[in-house]
Amino acid sequence: xxxxxxxxxxxxxxxxxxxxxxxxxxxxxxxxxxxxxxxxxxxxxxxxxxxxxxxxxxxxxxxxxxxxxxxxxxxxxxxxxxxxxxxxxxxxxxxxxxxxxxxxxxxxxxxxxxxxxxxxxxxxxxxxxxxxxxxxxxxxxxxxxxxxxxxxxxxxxxxxxxxxxxxxxxxxxxxxxxxxxxxxxxxxxxxxxxxxxxxxxxxxxxxxxxxxxxxxxxxxxxxxxxxxxxxxxxxxxxxxxxxxxxxxxxxxxxxxxxxxxxxxxxxxxxxxxxxxxxxxxxxxxxxxxxxxxxxxxxxxxxxxxxxxxxxxxxxxxxxxxxxxxxxxxxxxxxxxxxxxxxxxxxxxxxxxxxxxxxxxxxxxxxxxxxxxxxxxxxxxxxxxxxxxxxxxxxxxxxxxxxxxxxxxxxxxxxxxxxxxxxxxxxxxxxxxxxxxxxxxxxxxxxxxxxxxxxxxxxxxxxxxxxxxxxxxxxxxxxxxxxxxxxxxxxxxxxxxxxxxxxxxxxxxxxxxxxxxxxxxxxxxxxxxxxxxxxxxxxxxxxxxxxxxxxxxxxxxxxxxxxxxxxxxxxxxxxxxxxxxxxxxxxxxxxxxxxxxxxxxx
Amino acid sequence: xxxxxxxxxxxxxxxxxxxxxxxxxxxxxxxxxxxxxxxxxxxxxxxxxxxxxxxxxxxxxxxxxxxxxxxxxxxxxxxxxxxxxxxxxxxxxxxxxxxxxxxxxxxxxxxxxxxxxxxxxxxxxxxxxxxxxxxxxxxxxxxxxxxxxxxxxxxxxxxxxxxxxxxxxxxxxxxxxxxxxxxxxxxxxxxxxxxxxxxxxxxxxxxxxxxxxxxxxxxxxxxxxxxxxxxxxxxxxxx
Lengths: 601, 239
Description:
The structure holds two protein chains of two kinds. By secondary structure, chain A is α/β, with parallel strands linked by helices. Chain A has helices at residues 4-11, 48-51, 55-65, 80-88, 118-128, 170-185, 190-197, 258-261, 270-284, 302-313, 332-339, 355-360, 367-379, 398-420, 453-466, 479-490, 496-505, 518-528, 533-536, 557-568, and strands at 38-44, 70-76, 107-111, 143-147, 163-165, 203-204, 212-213, 241-244, 246-247, 266-267, 288-292, 319-321, 346-351, 384-391, 429-436, 472-476, 551-552. In chain A, helix 9 packs parallel to helix 10 (302-313) and helix 13 (367-379) runs parallel beside helix 14. The mean pLDDT of chain A is 93. Helices cover 21% and strands 34% of the residues of chain B. By secondary structure, chain B is α+β, with helices and mostly antiparallel strands.
C-alpha cells in the first residue's frame, strides 16, 4: 500500500486534475488485493480520461471483479507533472481502488490500443519498480502481460512482456487468473507460472516465440458484458453508456486492421442489448447511450434498437447516439430516431476522394451515397458534418487528392443550399480530418510501405491550398507521429532499444500532438543505431517473412494477398454478410457470422 | 416544488472539481429517479442549481443544491427524495438534509457568507486576533482574472480559534463579494510574518449563509418547509 497521506496532502494538491489519481469513483470495486487468490493491475498506458473511455478495459475490469476470489484494480499513465512528483516522493505506480502498489499484484496487464503509447508503458513499468525487460525480472516481480489490437504485432515491444494475449479477452483473462491462482496454491515459482500460462490458447510467450492463434468469442450474448461501469468524476473522452452492439466488421476496407482482426461479425441480440442498456443507465446515471462497434449502423436491427432505446430512455433525458456512420447505411429514418433525443455532429468517413480510390480500398461507397446521406443530415437539421479522409494510400495519385477537396466542397455547398431554406446557410460547417495512411499488420496493405514523410507533407500542403473556404476547416495528423506509428506497427524486435532510449530521454504521451517530441525520437533512433524507415517506409514482398507471421489473427495470408491484388486492380470484394463467402479464413474455432435475431449462418 | 438539499463532500471526493461534482450530482439524481423537471427545447437539461463552487481539495459539509421537481411527474416526499438521492451518491458525497423551498430567489443569488474550519495552525493564532482588531487590512487575493489588492478585513465577519488551534472563520461568499479561504490564510501568514511554504493546511467548509436582518441564516431556514435530516448526521469535526 502506498502512503495515502503523502498522496493526499503532499502530491495531489500540487498536480493538475488531481482527481485522475484519487479513484473513489462510483462502482469502483475496492477489495483487498492481497487477500485475493489472484490479482491483476489493469494498466492503461494513456491518461485517465482516455483509458476510462475504452470498453474493452471496462469489460475486463468487470469480469475479473465479478469473481470474489479475484481482484482487478486500474492504473493509468500519470501526466508528466504527476510522474515528476511520484519520482520525487518515491511513490510507486498504484491501483486506484485501494492504492495498492503495482508490485503487489500477481499480474500487470497492459492494454495496447495504440502504438504511440509504448513509451508510457515503459514509464509505468519504471514507476512500478518492475524491470523493463522480461528477461531481467525475478521471482518477486509481477508477471507483465499485454493485450489489445497492438498485440497482433507484438514484436517491437516483445522484450518488455512476459506474455502477450492475442484476440478477444473475455475468456482468456479468466483462464489466466484461474491458472495464476492454481499455481500460487501449489507454491509455484514465477517462471513456472509464466510457462504454464504460455500454454493457454491465445497466449504468446515472446521468449519462446511460439506460433499463436487469436482467441475469439463465438457468441457475444453468452459473453460477459458489464451491467455497471465505473463512473469517473472527471469527464472521460467517451463518458457515456457504451453499448457494444456487435464485434467485427466484414465490409472489408483494405486499410482497416480492426476490420480484419475482429472477424467474423458477431451481433448481440436486441433483447440483451435493451436489458444491458437499462441496467447501465440505472447503475451509472449517464445521460447518453452510444451504440458502439466498428460500424454500428450495420447492426442488423439498428433502427429497431434505436427506436426502443429512445422510447425507453428519452423521457429521462437520456440520448441515444452512434459514434460514426457509414454513408451507405445512414438512413433518414435512423437519423430521425436519434434526433428525437438529442443532436450531435454527424461524422461520415468516405476515406478517399475518388471512386477509383474508394474501390482500391474497398470502401464500397459512392459519391451519391455520401451526398444523399449528408443531404439527409442537413435536411433533418444538422449544421455540422465531419468528414474523415486518408492520404498516402497505396496506388494514390494527385487526382485522388483533388477528389478530397472537391467532395468536401460539394458537401459544404449542399449543406448551405439546404440550410438556406431555413435561412441558416451561414451556420453550416464541414470539418474535414485528414490522416496519413499507416500500413497495419494483418491487412491487405500490410506489405506496402508508408509514403515518405516528405511526400505526406507535400500532399498535406497540396490539400491545404485547395481547401481554403469559409465553413470548411481541415485538420491533418502529424506526419512524424504517423511515421512512428507505421514503424511500430510493422516493425520487429530491433525497435525495442529505441523505445527504451526514447523513454529515458523523456518521450511520453507520443500520441498527443502537443507532447510528441519528434526531435527526441530522432535522437533515440540515432543513438541506438536503428533506422525506423526500414520498417515504416519499406515495402515487403509477398514472399518475404513478416515480423508478425507467427501471429494468426484468423484471416489468412492468402486472403490478404488476394485482396492486395484486387486492390491494385480497383476491384471490389463484397461483404460476406450479403451472402458469398470471401474465404478470409476467420470463421474458425467455432466462430461464425452471427446476426441478431437470425440463425447461425 | 423545489427540493433543496444539503450535501457533504468528504475526503474521498476532495479532489473533485465543481464541474465534476455537478455531473456526479446530476447522475445521482438520474439513478435515484428523482422526478426532476427538464428545460424545454432542443437540448433538454435537468433543472437544478448549486449555491456556489468549492475549491478543489477543500472538503465541505455545506454544499447546497435546488432541484426543480417536475409537477407532472410522480409524487415524491422530501424524505423519500433524501433517502433515494443519498443512497445513489458516489463515494465521498452524501445528502444529509433536505427540505422543500417555497421562495423565488435562487440559492446562488442569496448566499453571502461561508464558514470554514482549518486544520490546526497555532502559528496564526495571534495574527488572527491582530487582523480582527483592524478596521481595514489590504492584501493580495487571487481571482480568475489574476492577482488583486483588496481590503480583506471587510470580507471577514469573524474568526475564532478552537481548543485544538484550528481556525474557524466566516467570510464573504457569493456573487457580490467573495473571499477564498486560501487567500485569507495566506494573508494571515503575511501578518504573522511566517512562511506558509511547505505548510499544507486542510480546509473544510462548515456552512453557507444568507443574511436576514443582519443575521446569518442557513439556506434551510429561509422559506423552507418539511426539513428532513439524515439519520445519524451531525456536523463533523475535522481530523
